[in-house]
Every structure is written in structure tokens, then in C-alpha cells.
Amino acid sequence: MALKLKKLRKRKWHKRSLRLLLSGTGSKPTLQPVWTRKPTDVAPEDYISFYTTFDKFSQPLNWTHFRVEGEVEFTALLYVPNSPPPGSTDFVDVKSHVKLYVKRVFISDSFDNFLPDWLNFIRGVVDSDDLPLNVSREILQQNKLLQTIQKKLVRKIISLLQDIMDDEERWESFYENYSQFIKMGIIRDQSNRGRLSKLLRFHSAQSTDKMIGLETYVANMKEGQEDIYFIGGENKETLLRSPLLERLTKKGYDVLLFTSPMDEYVSMHLTKYDNNYKLIDISKEGLKLDDNDKEMQEIYKKEYEPLITYLKEVLQRQISSVEVSVRLSTSPCALVSASWGMSANLERILKAQAMADKQAMFGLGAKKVFEINPRHPIIKQLLSIVEAEEQDSRTEDIIRVLYDSAALSSGYSVDDSASLSSRLHRLVAGSLSISPDFEVEEETFPEPVKAAVEEEKADL
């Protein structure tokens, strides 16, 4: 019964589509289906009218109508809806919404993987004379010609999306609605990753108001710069205050701001742009800016060796190493992840996913790299204290507070906020000439209140 109803609905859709596609609204009436006509013979009103056979509650944002000849011949009319259709962002159990015709005979509208799952928002029609008619849907789905059609359709759709992104009046609203599909394509569609990367847009440290593409970033790179720098975080405002940006922006480097949870996964798959420019996460160890930095690092490392050794002793449970930073300018210290570890942003994303599996959580809580700014007065004073062997419990409190503040400003969370508060209270007390071993004055009660309290305790 359910199968009969399904077939009946398809038959009704086909009849309704036929009425619409056989009668032009903006052009002269014709018996030719819309997609079989020349694009120059179809009015925009006809395209919009035909779109209602797929979705009568929305409008098409753009469409492409073309014919391919050569190793396989077919005609296609494909639409990008004005906004993503309901359920299209799930990317689970995805079915294509492109209807397949063979020699103008309707075959199916439910091929699995007819288009990649990241293109499940596309609506339209494909009609081929080369595909066999008298075979089952399962056999047809394995046909090599159909697979060739699929590849050509994806290329055409990407070209259509590029046209929208090149339109100054429409690209921003389109990207807001469809960026997650583009990013999912980069993650899942290796063969089209390079093409899709040209559609990406991000804010950056030098372009905080208008999003830019990777092509624009590369065109504006500082002379001698070989890599694309990025940092991930919860929002643009937080990232712009990150200490990890300080010296890069001061030296004229731009840094892309990855604020979508999907951006972090995109960076794992898109390791190079245009097969030439590496994407470098500046929140990880090993950042290299220029040759002078390496030379100065060696000088500072030797000078600060006593402090580095002491920091390792105090923070041995939290850190894997202490390094002289090339990314700090005005902050005393920062916390970065190991080159193989999770960034602070990825840790935040995974912690927010209540159903994250154990394998995905592997790496959370791994030891970090503690970086110091050798030009900062606090770090210089700490070196003097250690060299004079005058360090004490208060010095340890200062170092642990610096570590916690570095963790917070670098995008990590503090595991023991109560201990942080206690250390801060002791340091405040010391600055007010109060003994760090101070005791809080006991509360006293007037006699009537004291008697009432004791009576209440007796009743209990």
C-alpha cells in the first residue's frame, strides 16, 4: 500500500510538472520541456515557474541551464534555492533532489549519492539520451556514464556557486546561508577541495569588517611570507584580543579568524591552498616568522635558562616545555598546543559536544607549551629573582597565576578555578602588606541572636 501511494505521488508530481514545463509563462507557449529548450528561448519567469514543481514555498536564488556533449551527452537545469531547504543541513541519510530523466522519460528522484551529500540543497532535472532505459535503478546507479554525469554536474554547480560569490550584491547573504555546505564539501569531497577552497571567506586581523577569500589573503601577503596564518576561536572579538596575534600584526602579518566550529575541521583537510600555501595555526608551537627570530630566540634562550628551568619545575604537571615566544609583544606569556595536539579552539568545541566519543576526546588535557616574552618587565623580574635565588612560595603563586591567565587569554579553560582565586587573594594581600597566612575574623553574634541560634541547634 505504501509503495502504491509513493508511486501515485510521483505520478501526480510528474503530471503537474508536465503542465508547467509544457506551457511557457513569459515566452510563447511550447510543447518542449523547459530543460530541452535553448536557454536563450526560456524567459526568467519560466525558470521560476518550473522551480515551483520542486518547492512551491520558496524562490530560486540562481540557476544554471546547460547541455554537455562529448563522452556523454545530457541536459541539465539546476537550481540553488534562496535559502537551504528544511533538513538539508543534517548531512545524514542524504538523498539527491535532482530528478533523472532518460530520453525525457522520468526515471527517479531518489538516487543515493547522485550528487554528493554536501550538495543536497540543489534542486533540478537531468536528462540524458545515453543512459539505458530498461534496467533497474540499482544497476543504473552503477553505470559508468552516470558517474561521469555526476562529476560534470558537480563542476557545473561549483561554477554556479562561484558566479554567486562574484556578485557583490548577493554573495554575503548566500555565504551566510550556504557556507556550511561549502565547508562540508571541503571536508568530504577530496576531488573538488581545491575548487571549493576558492569559495571560502573569513574575517581577518586586517579585515575585521569585510570577509576575504584565500586568494585575496595571498595577494596581500607580506613580502617573503610563504604561509597562510589563521587562529580559531569562539568569536571575532575574542580572537582580536588574543595575545597570540600581538607580534604578527605588529610585524604586518595578516591572520585569518576562524570562528565557525567547521573551520577547525576544514583546516585539517585543506592543508594547502592552491597546492602552494600551507595553512598554519598560530596557536600551535613551532611558529616561524623570519630568520632573525631564530637567532634572537637562541640568544634569549641562553639568557633565560635559569628561569626556564625553574618554570619547568613549578609547572611540570601542566606543561611539556617552556619556550621563548616569537608571537608575543605586550603580554608576558601565552599557552600554545603541541604541533601534533589539539588547538584550544578544538578542545572547546569537543568539550561542548556532550556526545563526543572517546576517540574524539583523545588529546584533551594534554600538556601544553608555555611561552614567555623575554622583553616583558614581569618575565625580566622573575629572571632576576631566580638568578638571585630569592624565589619563595609567593614566587610560585605568581608563576601559577601567570600560567592560568595565559591559559584563559590563549583560549583554554582553567581546571581549578578555586585554586586560582586563592592565589589571587594571597597576592592581593601581599600587595596590601597583609600576611599571606592571614585569617578571616570570626563572626560574633549579639547575646539574643546567639541564644536563638543555640536554641535552634538544640531543636535539631
Q: Give the DSSP E fraction (strand runs of 2 or more residues).
A: 5-15%
The percentage helix is 40-55%
- Count all strands and give the number: 13
Average pLDDT level: 86
Could you name the ranges where pLDDT drops below 50 across 5 or more consecutive residues?
Answer: 1-13, 23-27
Shape: elongated
- Rg, rounded, reads 31 Å
Main sheet: strands, sense, barrel: 5 strands, mixed
> Please, how many helices?
18
Task: Kindly report the spatial arrangement of strands forming the biggest sheet.
Answer: 1-2-5-3-4
**Intertermini distance:** 71 Å
Structural class: alpha/beta
Written account of the structure:
This protein is an alpha/beta fold. It has helices spanning 2-22, 44-51, 137-141, 144-165, 171-188, 193-197, 214-219, 236-240, 246-250, 261-269, 291-303, 305-314, 344-352, 358-361, 377-387, 393-409, 417-431, 447-459; strands at 60-68, 74-81, 98-102, 105-108, 123-128, 203-204, 228-232, 256-258, 272-273, 277-281, 319-324, 333-336, 368-372. A hairpin with a 5-residue loop joins β1 (60-68) and β2.
